[in-house]
């Protein structure tokens, strides 16, 4: 058993009572430079780098060996090699997208444009909306199609209207012109202005990211007639047939933002057809740019990398190649990754930790003083039906239908999109596949899926600093225990709490309990609205956008601490290690997991679109609300981390 905390790397100039985040991470922040190919870097990203190096070794070894024709190993190797074959890619230039651009050029009317939208969407070019099969939020034993707003190429609708993004809008128009010129399209400068105008109109129909979080407002079920009524003049039959979607798939569907679809359909009728053709040509160029010759790759990075995120250097080619392989053959790679990097003992320990976290949640829910017995029992019922998934899927995806050619990168990506589209649509009418994972094992992340009421932890996150099978319990509970608690907490956040244990969007709360819950969450919103991150001076956190993640953090860490105390079996804390008590090591493990630095452009971008708070606040803003933190470090009213007991938010 190791301490898991390097006490020699803690700050000697900052007290944990004044700033836990900088006490834990100050020396790291002082000595660390953000790598040139990154916009943000920290403990999380260092673990991403580790996973990426492990995957690189697997993929390059696979690509270098003679593999049987048609095998998944051969497909992995051929796809990676097709991305690394820069000689062929440079020779081809824009030729791989010539057929798509010719298709757009041949369009004669709006119906022809709609048909072209469907055809290129099946090849990986996003259209005016997104769609896909998902579990029906109000009937969780069936799949249904969902549609979502789309059509824009900046990160969010706010980029098209807010004053602080004016310089980005100017840079975007210039980027559009350069990309269209590279593709050999006519009047690139004029087309760029017209494309920007069209996207600005589409963006005006978008819901903002706070409204878009509302799972009740975004559940709007319609039948085909209702869809036609929402979108006058849109040739759905033409779009469906060209997109490879059976008519039956759109017989019933959920439209997440109905007035956006209406606005987009109106724009199709009212904006000049040639302007729409310019926009679709841009979407084709943009979608393919990372796969084309160096001129396209560099210009794409110049805007989407340097301008939007501040990263000064493009990621190495092998890293980008792994991304393409992961997108097309993620679980095939995942099988090889798990075999080398995820021991059975890690899974067994995680099962144990999840069990302790669920028990801690149960005890806390039973003790809530603001919730009625009726709602409390329903919350306990939901908790009792959580399904944990750890490491990797029990059933792997089948890639036998995917054709990969070592000299056809763009074709490989197109065929992958078609295979995954068919896989997605094939769910309709079938029983729910409860073995499905939404992340690959080599992903450094975790998630909660409300419609399956499941918490999922891929193998790659189950490594230090988040999980160390040899580390002190206090450290594991403060790191991976809090991650487990966070994901469970999403089942009880402002949106996840609207789903019952079976994954249905039903109201299982009394009005009084929901009001009491919202009173507490409103205090949390106010706390975070006041925060200004170090990496983006002059900009504030959006407490409503980040509410779900903030509830997950607060509940997750609070419950993880309860689980840690339960693990002591009623006994006293173990002796201090390196002068740190178990409780102090618990909170330091949490703080160390959020070590992070971001470039200013990236920090600002994340404030606009990311539902997670900046890392420094995922540490400090959370712990200030927890009584046990104040006790562990003997926080006094004169200390910087002090928060008066009456101002501390406790939800779960």
TrEMBL record:
Cite the entry's keywords alphabetically: Hydrolase, Metal-binding, Metalloprotease, Protease, Zinc
* Cofactor(s) this protein cannot do without: Zn(2+)
Check the record and name the Pfam families matching this protein. Peptidase_M13, Peptidase_M13_N
Q: Which CDD domains match?
A: M13 (cd08662)
What region holds the Peptidase M13 C-terminal domain?
A: 445-649
Any idea where the Peptidase M13 N-terminal domain is?
16-393
Give the record's family classification. Belongs to the peptidase M13 family.
The record's section on PANTHER family has: FI17812P1-RELATED, ZINC METALLOPROTEASE FAMILY M13 NEPRILYSIN-RELATED
The protein's name is M13 family metallopeptidase
Q: Could you tell me which species this protein originates from?
A: Kribbella koreensis
């Amino acid at each position: 058993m190791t301490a898991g905390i390097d006490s020699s790397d803690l700050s000697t100039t900052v007290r944990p009572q004044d700033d836990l985040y900088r006490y834990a991470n100050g020396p790291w922040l002082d000595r660390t430079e953000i790598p040139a190919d990154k916009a943000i870097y920290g403990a999380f990203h260092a673990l991403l780098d580790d996973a990426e190096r492990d995957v690189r070794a697997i993929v390059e070894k696979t690509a270098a060996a003679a593999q049987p024709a048609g095998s998944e190993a051969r497909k992995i190797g051929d796809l990676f090699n097709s991305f690394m074959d820069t000689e062929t890619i440079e020779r081809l230039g824009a030729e791989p997208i010539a057929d798509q651009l010719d298709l757009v050029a041949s369009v004669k009317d709006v119906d022809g444009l709609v048909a072209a939208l469907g055809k290129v969407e099946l090849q990986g070019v996003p259209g005016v909306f997104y769609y896909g099969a998902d579990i029906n939020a109000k009937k969780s034993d069936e799949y249904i199609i969902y549609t979502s707003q789309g059509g824009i190429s900046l990160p969010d609708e706010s980029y098209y209207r807010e004053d602080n993004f004016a310089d980005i809008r100017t840079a975007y128009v210039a980027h559009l012109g350069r990309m269209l010129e590279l593709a050999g399209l006519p009047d690139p400068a004029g087309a760029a202005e017209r494309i920007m105008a069209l996207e600005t109109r589409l963006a005006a129909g978008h819901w903002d990211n706070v409204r878009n979080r509302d799972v009740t407002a975004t559940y709007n079920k319609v039948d085909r007639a209702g869809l036609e009524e929402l979108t006058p003049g849109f040739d759905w039959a033409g779009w469906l047939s060209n997109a490879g979607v059976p008519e039956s798939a759109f017989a019933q569907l959920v439209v997440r933002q109905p007035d956006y679809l209406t606005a987009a359909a109106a724009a199709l009728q009212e904006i000049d057809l040639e302007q729409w053709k310019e926009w679709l040509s841009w979407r084709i160029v943009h979608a393919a740019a990372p796969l084309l010759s160096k001129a396209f790759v560099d210009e794409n990075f110049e805007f989407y990398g340097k301008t939007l995120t501040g990263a000064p250097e493009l990621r190495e080619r092998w890293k980008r190649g792994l991304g393409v392989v992961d997108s097309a053959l993620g679980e095939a790679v995942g099988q090889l990754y798990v075999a080398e990097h995820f021991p059975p003992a890690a899974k067994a320990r995680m099962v144990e930790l999840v069990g302790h976290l669920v028990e801690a949640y149960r005890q806390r829910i039973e003790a809530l003083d603001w919730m009625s017995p009726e709602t409390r029992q329903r919350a306990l019922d939901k908790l009792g039906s959580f399904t944990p998934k750890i490491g990797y899927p029990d059933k792997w995806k089948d890639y036998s239908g995917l054709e990969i050619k070592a000299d056809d990168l763009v074709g490989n990506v197109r065929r992958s999109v078609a295979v995954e589209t068919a896989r997605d649509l094939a769910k309709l009418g079938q029983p729910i596949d409860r073995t499905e994972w939404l992340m690959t094992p080599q992903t450094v992340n975790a998630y909660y899926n409300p419609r399956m009421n499941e918490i999922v932890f891929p193998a790659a996150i189950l490594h230090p600093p988040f999980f160390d099978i040899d580390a002190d319990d206090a450290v594991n509970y403060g790191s991976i225990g809090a991650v487990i608690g966070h994901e469970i907490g999403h089942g009880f956040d402002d949106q996840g709490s609207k789903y019952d244990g079976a994954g249905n969007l039903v109201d299982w709360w009394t009005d009084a309990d929901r009001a009491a819950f919202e009173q507490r969450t409103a205090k949390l919103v106010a706390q975070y609205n006041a925060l200004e991150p170090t990496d983006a001076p002059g900009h504030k956190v959006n407490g409503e956008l980040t509410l779900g993640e903030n509830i997950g953090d607060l509940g997750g860490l609070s419950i993880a601490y309860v689980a840690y105390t339960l693990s002591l079996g009623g006994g006293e804390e173990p002796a201090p290690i390196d002068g740190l008590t178990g409780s102090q090591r618990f909170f330091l493990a949490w703080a160390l997991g959020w070590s992070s630095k971001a470039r200013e452009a990236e920090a600002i971008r994340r404030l606009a679109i990311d539902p997670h708070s900046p890392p420094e606040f995922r540490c400090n803003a959370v712990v200030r609300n927890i009584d046990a933190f104040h006790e562990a470090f003997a926080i006094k009213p004169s200390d910087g981390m002090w928060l008066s007991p009456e101002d501390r938010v406790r939800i779960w």
